[in-house]
Design goal:
alpha+beta; five-stranded mixed sheet; 4 helices; 9 strands; 21% helix
């Protein structure tokens, strides 16, 4: 297949300054370019932009579980310590974490931006063979150090939570 990966995600927000603080100050993305009153272009490393944030029309409703469109945006962390650190950073900034999930192949935290757009930060768990065991959905006690260990294939199969309804 000629397509290689997702290049960037573009979203609309009601308040560009709130988005600038959230994505820049809290999540640590670098602001690559700003078009005053219209948009922000954030990046993680040296790529020109990973996330484009545009001003929504006045009166726009916040995102919700009932709207058609993106269910969530997933951001990859380098390891579990980074996920745990982001979890704590979000809590310190008063950002509610809606759930922490062990998917077997990944360890994830979920939260929303100021406009209700859900985000996920996760790390890979290469020791978990998702091809053999499938993807699972097990609530995770992220503050428990054992959460950094891969879920056992037996427990994963016993949980049999393979298709989450709230992606």
């Amino acid at each position: 297949m000629a397509i290689q990966r997702t290049g960037h995600v573009a979203i609309r927000v009601r308040d560009l300054e709130a988005a600038k603080r959230f994505y820049g100050d809290i999540l640590g993305m670098k602001l690559g370019m700003e078009i005053p009153g219209q948009g922000l272009f954030f990046r993680f490393n040296s790529y020109h932009h990973d996330l484009a944030v545009f001003k929504a029309r006045d009166g726009a409703e916040p995102a919700s579980k009932n709207h058609a469109g993106v269910a969530h945006i997933a951001l990859v962390a380098d390891d579990f310590d980074t996920v745990l650190g982001m979890y704590r950073r979000l809590r310190e900034h008063g950002v509610p974490v809606s759930r922490t999930i062990d998917h077997g192949a990944t360890k994830s935290i979920y939260f929303s931006d100021p406009d209700g757009i859900e985000l996920e930060i996760y790390c890979e768990v290469p020791e978990f063979d998702w091809r053999h065991n499938g993807m699972v959905r097990v609530p995770m006690d992220i503050e428990n150090e054992s959460a950094a260990q891969p879920i056992s294939p037996e427990r994963a199969r016993a949980m049999s939570l393979r298709l989450p309804s709230d992606l």
